[in-house]
Write a structure and sequence with these properties.
The complex is a heterodimer of chains A (320) and B (271).
Chain A lengths: L2 H60 L5 H5 L12 H32 L4 H13 L4 H16 L5 H25 L3 H9 L4 H30 L2 H5 L33 H9 L7 H32 L3
Chain B lengths: L23 E10 L2 E11 L4 E5 L6 H8 L9 E9 L2 E2 L7 H7 E4 L10 H11 L6 H14 L3 H4 L12 H13 L5 E5 L7 H14 L4 E5 L3 H7 L2 E6 L2 E7 H6 L4 H7 L5
The chains are: A mainly alpha (320), B alpha/beta (271).
Chain lengths: 320, 271
């Protein structure tokens, strides 16, 4: 007669144990959740704090040196008179050349690889190597450029060579970003366009590229930022470290009124100028180096800001 | 092995040239995806003034065959189509045929509404523009209006043609896609399960629309639902494991199917 009672009490105990189990499991899960939240926050803060400390430090040392004169003076042996005119002009011109080469070539290569190239061993091979190129140390690009462009093709230690070298350097970044964002465009969009009789090029130009454009812009931002900060490959190809003249102005008084001679002029860039100053003995030039770095950061953030604004505009045009 | 469709009215005889039953004529059409034999020796005639529905269990090849008719399969890696597929007696797989031009004659509506991420106006105007029907907005406006009217959507969207098409409801989006297809004046419209992502009310509206459109266009529709096939189509083809098992008047397929497999499927024994 006690059997049924036993069974039911056993079941009761088991149910109770199950509930307790669940409770402790849930508690453990909540704990893990909290731990991960803390770790994630710490990881984020670590980066932000480091960047913040760096900028504050740069500002403390560099801000006193920052003035209009600093931006409009050529380098000088006297720290208080030295400026970065040739360096920031050089940086902007080199980036201009880099952008003009790397963006169209990179985007075109990305489109081709994703939308046109047959999928076979050869394209797999290219894919792996493009990704690998993104990881090659930048000095290697400098050596390649020195051998191929400066000595091989005779392009000299010029703005053109520098732009070309940095373009090679950031090409993989732009190609990979273009491919990723093209791949993220839903297949149904391509089919919709093909369905109304669009050619492959119309599908790409009118639908795939606009939808992928924000992602492509992100790749361009990353690439340009990287190129702006590069020093090693430019030193390798023979960038000047002391330069007291500007490149030839592109505008002239006589026909055809414009020229591209500046492409072949010598140059320096901001990171090289900063590196040059910081490696001098004594403390005189430390402030200059910090101020030059601040300007470099400002240019990078400024260009990124333009690109981000462009990206936002492109996103808005899409009516997902 | 009964690979031959058993009750094809014109299949037993030689393909007849009667215009009404020969808009689309398939003979021994085979499709392979790599190693997979997805469609086996399909023979069928599809007439122009009717809605033809393709039914059958998932993976039976009905969508594959549909996508042969506008050569949408061309873009799929490893897909091979063989046999003869003719529209108005011209082989659409001939080397001289440009699939892009073919797709302007054979429009398509997809399973999930896939409007372009652009305005309602742009969605309709895109096709006519790339085919040179007009350049300016003024040229294209009448085409856009007419297409939206035919698709029964004009009244709902005429005040917001510049709004995003993706802001429309699912049913409206699908009617927009139908309007987009008819804007380029096709002869044939292929519909690949056009209602499978829609609620019953939106489905009913699309079905009414199909019934109206059949007077102007030759319509082929793939559907999962017998009820839908019965409601919208005059002829039905049943596919199974890559075979076209039988094709005939919809009523007959549902009330007196000849093949065992059709019977089993329709009475719910598999599928």
């Amino acid at each position: 007669m006690t059997m049924p009672a036993d069974i039911s009490s056993n079941e009761f105990v088991r149910a109770y144990e199950r509930a307790e189990d669940r409770k402790s499991r849930n508690a453990a899960r909540a704990r893990r959740e909290r731990v991960f939240r803390a770790v994630g926050l710490a990881a984020t803060l670590l980066g932000l704090v480091a960047l913040g400390a760096l900028i504050v430090d740069l500002m403390l040392v560099g801000l006193p040196r920052l003035s209009l004169d600093f931006l409009t003076n050529f380098p000088s042996r006297r720290a208080s008179q030295a400026g970065i005119l040739s360096a920031w002009v050089g940086s902007l011109l080199v980036i201009l050349v880099t952008g003009f080469i790397a963006v169209p070539v990179g985007v075109a290569a990305g489109i081709y690889l994703e939308e046109y190239a047959p999928k076979n061993r050869f394209s797999d091979f290219i894919e792996i190597n493009v990704s690998n190129l993104a990881g090659v140390p930048s000095i290697i690009y400098g050596l390649l450029a020195l051998g191929l462009f400066v000595y091989g093709l005779g392009t000299g230690r010029s703005i053109f060579t520098a732009g070309l070298t940095l373009a090679l350097l950031i090409l993989p970044i732009i190609i990979v970003a273009t491919r990723e964002s093209i791949r993220a465009v839903p297949q149904s969009l391509r089919e919709a366009a093909r369905g109304v009789g669009a050619t492959e090029w119309q599908v790409t130009r009118d639908h795939v590229l606009p939808a992928a454009a924000p992602g492509v812009m992100t790749g361009i931002i990353l690439g340009i930022s990287r190129a702006l900060g590069e020093t090693a490959p430019l030193i390798t190809i023979g960038a000047l470290t002391f330069i007291a003249f500007l490149p030839t102005p592109p505008i002239q008084a006589t026909a055809p009124y414009v020229n591209m001679h500046w492409l072949w002029d010598g140059f320096t860039v901001l990171p090289i100028q900063a590196f040059n100053w910081i490696s001098r003995p004594g403390d005189d030039f430390v402030g200059n180096a910090a101020a030059a770095s601040l300007v470099l950061i400002a240019i990078t953030l400024g260009l990124n800001g333009v690109a981000i604004w462009l990206r936002a505009r492109l996103r808005k045009k899409l009516k997902w | 092995m009964d690979a031959m469709p058993t009750t094809m009215p014109s299949g037993s005889a030689r393909p007849s040239r009667a215009a009404d039953e020969g808009k689309i004529v398939a003979r021994a059409v085979n499709v392979h995806y790599g190693e997979k034999h997805a469609l086996k020796d399909v023979n069928v005639n599809i007439g122009s003034n009717a809605v033809t529905s393709f039914i059958g269990p998932s993976g039976c090849g009905k969508s594959t065959f549909l996508r042969c008719i506008n050569r949408m399969n061309d873009t799929i890696e490893g897909c091979r189509v063989s046999g003869s597929l003719r529209i108005d007696d011209a082989d659409i797989y001939a080397a001289t045929v440009d699939p892009v031009e073919l797709r302007a004659r054979v429009g398509m509506v997809f399973q999930k509404p896939n409007p372009f991420p652009k305005s309602i106006f742009e969605n309709i105007a895109y096709g006519p523009r790339i085919h040179g029907f007009g350049k300016s907005r003024a040229d294209l406006e009448p085409i856009v209006q007419r297409s939206l009217e035919k698709a029964g959507l004009w009244g709902e969207v005429k005040d917001r043609l510049n709004d995003a098409a993706t802001g429309l409801s699912g049913g409206q989006q699908q009617r927009l896609c139908i309007a987009r297809a008819i804007a380029i004046d096709p002869e044939i419209i292929l519909m690949d399960e056009p209602c499978s992502a829609l609620d019953p009310i939106a489905t009913a509206r699309i079905e009414e629309l199909i019934d109206e459109l059949r007077r102007t266009f030759c319509i082929v529709i793939v559907t999962h639902s017998f009820a839908q096939a019965a409601r919208v189509s005059q002829r039905t083809a049943f596919f199974h494991l890559g075979d076209l098992v039988e094709e005939g008047p919809t009523e007959q397929i549902f009330s007196a199917p000849v093949d065992r497999r059709t019977q089993d499927y329709i009475t719910g024994r598999f599928g």
